[in-house]
Design brief:
Length: 235
């Protein structure tokens, strides 16, 4: 019989909306398959009673550009409350050495919190970056990225080349303090960052939770959950 109490508690952030969507369910499933227990972290929601042993930031609306000194897009519905909540969580997790796995928007905010910046439209900066932006494209389009040898990603995937999905129009520009770029597309777009002074503090631009039908991507979540088991809790 599975002892659920022995699973590390992973805080997973999402918007304040109480609706459970496919994106959140994908994260929940990925964490569960990796051996963790999910606790929802959202603006206005009560703090979980149990201490967190890992933190996961998922995708969502764009990070507010004012956080990195750029003009906001007119009439865009930014989620300032989520920005604030995740910023506080990231700062505490970094300080306390709690494992963090940040995806898409989460990776971008992770970078911004460490004084980095973002490109607001990759199609205007990089060649060949006008990727599909429809449902079929999000489901089936794949692009190649190159992993840096010796990086955590390289250790997990055991390759220097990986095919991933593309569900973003923004990307990291200036890299935040103490971060190292550990994956890029051939055209230069940053696809992953890691902190070397932290046991597991990783941000990826792609969505591995939508690729868990592949063993290598399930291993990614297994590695994160394993790091959470060894970590002190985030109270």
């Amino acid at each position: 019989m599975i002892n659920f109490k022995n699973r590390p508690v992973i805080g997973v952030t999402r918007p304040a909306s109480k609706r459970i969507n496919l994106a959140y369910l994908s994260l929940w499933l990925a964490v569960w398959l990796g051996g963790g227990r999910v606790r929802v972290l959202a603006p206005g929601k009560k703090k979980p009673k149990e201490p967190l042993e890992g933190l996961m930031l998922g995708g969502g609306t764009d990070v507010f550009p004012g956080l990195f000194f750029k003009e906001p897009i007119k009439d865009y519905a930014y989620d300032r409350e989520r920005d604030q909540l995740e910023t506080q969580l990231l700062e505490k997790a970094n300080r306390d050495k709690i494992p963090v796995f940040a995806i898409c928007r989460g990776a971008q905010l992770m970078n911004v919190v460490s004084k980095g910046t973002l490109h607001l439209d990759i199609s205007k900066v990089y060649e060949g970056a006008d990727y599909p932006d429809n449902v079929l494209g999000y489901m089936f389009f794949r692009k190649r990225i190159n992993l840096q040898e010796g990086s955590l990603l390289h250790q997990i995937f055991k390759t220097t080349e990986l095919w991933v999905n593309s569900i973003h129009k923004q990307s990291i520009d200036k890299v935040g303090k103490n971060f190292e770029v550990t994956a890029r597309e051939p055209n230069g777009i940053i696809q992953a960052i890691e902190k070397k002074d932290h046991p597991f503090y990783v941000g990826v631009q792609f969505h591995p939770e939508r690729l868990i039908y592949r063993k290598s991507f399930r291993s990614f979540f297994n590695k994160f959950i394993g790091a959470a088991k060894r970590a002190e809790s985030l109270g």
